[in-house]
Amino acid sequence: MAIARVIENTSFILGPEVEAFERAFAEYVGVRFCVGLNSGTAALHLALLAAGIGAGDEVILPANSFFATAEAVSVAGATPVFVDADAISYTIDPGKIETAITARTRAIIPVHLYGQPADLDPVFEMARRRNLLVIEDAAQAHGAEYKGRRVGGLGDIGCFSFYPGKNLGAYGEGGAIVTGDAEFARRVRLLRDHGSEQKYRHEIIGYNFRLEGIQAAVLNVKLRHLDRWNELRRRHAVSYDELLKDSNLILPREMPYSRHAYHLYVVQSERRDELQQQLAQAGIQTGIHYPIPIHLQPAYASLNYQRGNFPETEKQSDRVLSLPMFAELTDEQIESVAQAIRNP
Ligand SMILES: Cc1ncc(COP(=O)(O)O)c(C=O)c1O
Fold this sequence. Notes:
The protein is α/β, with parallel strands linked by helices. Helices cover 36% and strands 15% of the residues. The chain has a seven-stranded mixed β-sheet with strand order 1-9-8-5-4-2-3, sandwiched between helices. The model has no long low-confidence stretch (mean pLDDT 97). The structure holds pyridoxal-5'-phosphate.
């Protein structure tokens, strides 16, 4: 129905469905503005540009994220500066940010990895003292809460991805920024559409990063189900916790300040590759998020980081395994994953 409406109106790019989704998602996150874009990477990229961050600037981010978090910083012309992860939450270790700050630092990007909010208060405190922006990477954390408030809307700008596998996923590429700052929102809106607000009049050089009508129509419908789907993910996490509590795996921990959205249910095993094989033989597909930390990616060889720089991130990348996690998982499926882990 929603898709048919877009086709009927031929509002394939931006248009009323996108505007309706922007209003609904801003309200959901609890901010004034949402600007729909065509990926989470575009969201990070334009958040940085709208903040005036570019050549000569440094941006602090965790070494254990999806590559796009750092890539957006580089594409904006700035330099990513990595920080190690916390051993328990897997998110940026706030105690290690201070030493990474230099006179060139302009922003910090905490990533709400796997659906667990980063510990934001110490990040905000540091940002306030050093006059830095906080750009939340909430690509994996739609509906997750930090101290009772939904993430994305807590920093200066929040970035979301609606890649199909996300907690809120489109039927193709999609992303958005959310912000309480009218000027940031205006600049991102300009940048996403060739620097233009008025057809064929271009104020600045921009991009084609527009959200499609069909994707917005899908997102509008799915947004109504997001809380229920997240609740199911949380229940599945409790079932895994219970079934695996006596295994030798390290299980994910929901931090006291967080309401985890369980985009991924990530365990640690010293014999991760063997375990992954074992599960594959039982027909169970798992993932590794992520096998190579960003500071050790070939693309960042020129930054001269070495193995040993971020021991926690490196240890995690050797040990983490993401078990099947989606709202539609059944109790039987969870039981059979646990069974395959316990009895090889
Ligand atoms: C943490 C994180 N940041 C950024 C992105 C980039 O989003 P997209 O794939 O929509 O460009 C993703 C998603 O893949 C992600 O997981």
